[in-house]
Write a structure and sequence with these properties.
It contains eleven helices and 14 strands. By secondary structure, the protein is of the alpha/beta class.
């Protein structure tokens, strides 16, 4: 694949941005759609493969631009088939993406930032600090460059970083995934996870039709704030109240992610507190088993019995609730475990 830090990558550009490129280079405007087709549909990695673009125009492009795709530098495969990929994003930093096969579903969990500044106590990504936003090129490269790229049925923004803390770049990638000139996916194949950045979340909900997953983990204000500092700025009950004003009953889904910790948030009192902030009966709750990470001594994995009791309480009160099956824990690819470590 092409890799030249002096050239501007085209992968990650919208059709409108491609139009500007070809116009500046004096090429026919239809070349913009051809570039999108070659990069996003056919997944080519060099201009030499774009045979319906003249040689002269390919050479002109190559003087200033590159396709801008790069393979992952490492891969680790779990015993359950999950694969974690490491991508070099420059400045000595790397991010991780996770491929999760499950019968006829092939999901890729992608990263949007180098680290994270939400500083959630239980998250390995947040504990490594924040090192910058990923560009739309670096985000879409994860989708286009994994070996299973053509098999993917779903993409979830649940990897490293808070997607709504990098909203502009994430919105560009969503456009690439869903617009006819891009991958032309249904928005129902895309899910964006957030800890609840209310202002940016409102923009995402109103400007796209993707699924939304909110990381709640505790509906009790003081307890949630002790683990998730953003709770002080955007209380989760206010975030859920806002989301209740939008239609999540038909073409899109609103779900709640809830990591369970023994004796901290896994009793019926907390299940009731969670039920009270849900805006309507259409919200789905996913209970997630906690995966131990270093230097977090006060949190322990909830027992199967307590998770089942929590689930059954919610289901018995009209809330659709399931326990998510853990994937890739043996390669540190499970929820909250991504760290983007580069081997020295």
């Amino acid at each position: 694949m092409e890799k030249n830090n002096q050239l501007i990558p085209l992968a990650g550009m919208t059709l409108e941005e491609m139009y500007k490129v070809v116009k500046e280079l004096g090429m026919p405007l239809f070349t913009a759609k051809q570039l999108c087709q070659w990069i996003y549909d056919k997944r080519v990695t060099t201009f030499g493969e774009m045979m319906n673009i003249s040689k002269a125009n390919r050479e002109r492009l190559a003087e200033r631009y590159c396709v801008g795709l790069s393979f992952p530098t490492e891969a680790q495969k779990s015993q359950d088939g999950t694969v974690k990929y490491l991508f070099d994003v420059g400045d000595g930093q790397a991010v991780e993406a996770v491929y999760i096969p499950d019968e006829d579903r092939h999901t890729l969990c992608i990263s949007s930032q180098k680290g994270c500044r939400m500083n959630c106590y239980f998250c390995m990504t947040g504990r490594q600090g924040f090192h910058g936003n990923l560009t739309s090129n670096q985000i879409i490269n994860q989708v286009l460059s994994v070996p299973q790229s053509q098999q993917l049925t779903n993409v979830v923004f649940m990897g490293m970083g808070e997607p709504l803390d990098n909203l502009d770049e994430v919105m560009r990638v969503i456009a690439i995934l869903t617009e006819p000139w891009g991958l032309a996916w249904s928005p129902k194949r895309v899910t964006v996870s957030t800890v609840g950045k209310k202002t940016e979340l409102k923009t995402l909900v109103e400007k796209t039709s993707v699924h939304i997953a909110v990381s709640v983990h505790n509906a009790v204000h003081d307890e949630r704030q002790s683990l998730m500092p953003l709770e002080k700025v955007y209380p989760i009950d206010e975030v859920m109240e806002m989301l209740g004003k939008y239609d999540f009953a038909h073409q899109r889904r609103l779900s709640v992610e809830y990591i369970m910790w023994q004796w901290f948030n896994d009793d019926i009192k907390h299940a009731e507190a969670l039920r009270e902030i849900l805006p309507n009966e259409h919200v789905r709750v996913n209970l997630i088993r906690y995966h131990m990470i270093p230097d977090v001594p006060k949190l322990r994995t909830s027992s199967d019995e307590r998770m089942l009791a929590f689930r059954d309480y919610l289901n018995g009160h009209g809330v659709t609730c399931t326990i998510r099956r853990s994937r890739g824990e043996d390669i540190q690819a499970a929820c909250g475990m991504l760290a983007g470590k580069v081997k020295k």
